[in-house]
Amino acid sequence: MKNKLFQLPVLAFSLLCLSNSLNAQKPKFNPHEDVRDAGMVTPTVIDKMIAVNQVLGKGKVDWKSVGRNYFNYMDRNNYKDENVMVPVMIGMRMSDGVLSIMARDVELLNKSAADIELLAKKIGASAGTFKRANKVKTYANKKDWNRVFLELGFLQKDVLGTLAKKELKNRRVILIASGWLEGAHMMTSVIQKEYSADTAALLREPMLVKQMIKEIEALDATTQKDIVIKSMLGTLKKIYPMVNVPLHGSVTKENVTQIHEATSAFRKLAIANKR
Predict the structure, then answer these.
(1) Positive or negative, the Cα torsion across 144, 150, 151, 152?
(2) pLDDT band at 162 (very low <50, low <70, confident <90, very high)
(3) Terminus-to-terminus CA distance in the chain, angstroms?
């Protein structure tokens, strides 16, 4: 979106701005402004969580309770497939980590950081990545949440940096799409309970969903045959028409439920693929 919360395409700059927004007073959010520019960027659902707080009023959503649903759903030791399953799980855990910051949940944050660290090791992340994961946990234990947010963002950037090589592009695409789907699952769980045209408008990201579909369809033939990738692509294609609404439109309550069910099905399949 071209709103202050959504227009920042550069990860490092957006992290600096968004970290301040955890405590700073923000102008009234307009969910009907234009969608964010399309592009495969690091998934972060914090912008939508902040916007929900602005629309509903701070304290209306018990983010800690929401976060408990994303705590013990996976055992990182079950996933060894470097091409598909490890990137999928890292992407999901990245979004879990962001939720833990919004929830001020040290336990969930520590678990998310530890899982990202171990999974990142499986795809050849550098020693610096592990130092960053330790920083995330250190600042979380001190409850310095602005610094936690920055360090988690830099941890994500380090992990994606590991996948910057051309031959690893597939993994990067998969990681980003799985992180977005996890974020969509989180947000629809909240919006279902607190439905309004304004809250549902936060799901309107047709350009980004279209871009993810395009990137996944460009993956090599072997990867596209993978059952989890087929589910990922099918889920995004199912979601696209639901979020492709007019500029000043919103996502219907029925479609919010359908998006939640679709992302739930993808999560269930992905988590069950222990390979």
Answers:
(1) positive
(2) confident
(3) 37
Q: Which of 214, 237, 233 is nearest to 84 (CA)?
A: 233
Among 138, 144, 182, 137, residue whose Cα is nearest residue 22: 144
Residue written as token pair 């979601």: 239
- Whether 11 and 41 have beta carbons less than 8 Å apart is answered as yes
CA distance 5 to 150: 16
| Secondary structure class of 3 (helix, strand, coil) | coil
| pLDDT tens, position by position, 31-88 | 555 444 434 445 468 889 989 999 999 899 999 999 999 999 999 999 999 999 999 9
Which two tokens mark 119? 């999974």
Spatial contact of 245 and 268, defined as CB atoms under 8 Å apart: no
For residue 100, give the 3-state DSSP assignment. Answer: helix
Q: Which residues contact 3 (CB under 8 A, 6 or more apart)?
A: 29, 30, 33
- Tokens 């964010």 locate to 36
Query: Which sequence spans correspond to the domains of the chain?
Result: 11-272
Among 106, 171, 181, smallest CA distance to 143 is for 106
pLDDT at 1 over 50: no
Please report how many Cα atoms fall inside a 13 Å half-sphere around the Cα of residue 173, on the Cβ side: 22
Torsion of CA 249, 252, 258, 261, to 10 degrees: 90
The model carries a pTM of: 0.83
Plot region of 29 (φ>0 → left; ψ -120 to 50 → alpha; else → beta): beta
CA 106, CA 112: separation in Å to the nearest integer?
A: 10
| Residues counted in the chain | 275
Which residues 6+ apart lie within 8 Å of 75 measured at CB?
none
User: In degrees rounded to 5, what are phi and psi of residue 245?
Assistant: -110, 160
Determine the pLDDT at residue 127: 67
